[in-house]
Amino acid sequence: MIKNGPYLALDTSYQKLSVDELLETAGKRLPEHFDDYRRQLCRGEYRNLSEDRPVTHVLSRSVHAVAKQSNRKTRFVDTVQKLRSGRWLGSTGKPITDVVNIGVGGSDLGPQMGAFALKEFADDAALHGLQVHFVSSMDGGQLYAVLPIVDPETTLFIVSSKSFGTVDTFANVDTVRKWIEPDLTQEQWLAKHVIGVSANAQGMTDYGIPPAQQFTFGQGVGGRFSLWSALGLSIALTTGIRPFERMLEGAKAMDEHFLDAPLADNLPVLLALYGVYNREQLGINNLAILPYDGRLRMLPNYLQQLDMESNGKQYTAENEAIDYPTGPIIWGGFGPNGQHAFFQHLHQGYDQFTADFVTVLKREAPGFSDATRSGLAEQQRLAVANCLAHRRLMWDGSENADSPSDHYPGGHPSNLLIMDDLTPESFGALIAAYEHKVFTQGVIWGLNSFDQPGVEKGKKIAMDVLRVLDGESDETFDDSTDAIIKRMR
Ligand code: F6P
Question: What is the distance between the alpha carbons of residues 283 and 265, in angstroms, rounded to a whole number?
Answer without folding.
Answer: 25
